[in-house]
Amino acid sequence: MANHTLLSASSLEGDQVKNRQGEDLGEIKEIMIDTETHSVAYYVLSFGGVMGIGDDLFAIPPEAMRVDTAEKCFILNVDKKLLKSAEGFDKNNWPDLTDPKFRQDLYGHYGISQSAQQRH
Q1: By the 8 A CB rule, do 34 and 48 touch?
Q2: For the chain, what is the largest distance between any 2 Cα atoms, rounded to a whole number of angstroms?
Q3: Dihedral sign, Cα of residue 53, residue 59, residue 61, residue 62
Q4: Is residue 1 part of a domain?
């Protein structure tokens, strides 16, 4: 039998995000839930700025992240350069995260297949 762990969304908000190289990429600000599929639609990552001031927000597909329960952080399989080139947004000006074009561009940026997109 598989060893599953359940975690509350609120316990994950504020968690650190690193890449495989151990570089700090920011922290989880929000977890967006798709009410039709009852699954995580996007993680919202806060990145850049200093001490939370001037941070940009980035929508991250769930397929691009994994939770490292031992390290109590998220692992995003990208380097900082790819993350910096993603389309970020301001906390007061969110894009339409349900827009199919937004989803297609976002998943394409992170190299996630069309079949993974269609599961959401």
Answers
A1: no
A2: 45
A3: positive
A4: no
Place of tokens 């000006």: 93
Phi, psi angles (nearest 5°) of residue 69: -70, -30
Query: Dihedral (C-alpha) 31, 46, 78, 69: value to the nearest 10 degrees?
Result: -50
Measured CA to CA, the distance from residue 50 to residue 28 in angstroms comes to 16
- Number of domains into which the chain is organized: 1
Give the pTM: 0.83
Please give the structure tokens belonging to residue 57: 């927000």
Distances (CA, A) of 39 to 43, 62, 93: 11, 9, 24
**Residue 84 structural domain:** 9-118
pLDDT tens readout for residues 27-66 = 999 999 999 988 999 999 998 766 556 688 999 999 999 9
Interatomic CA distance for residues 78 and 76, integer angstroms: 6
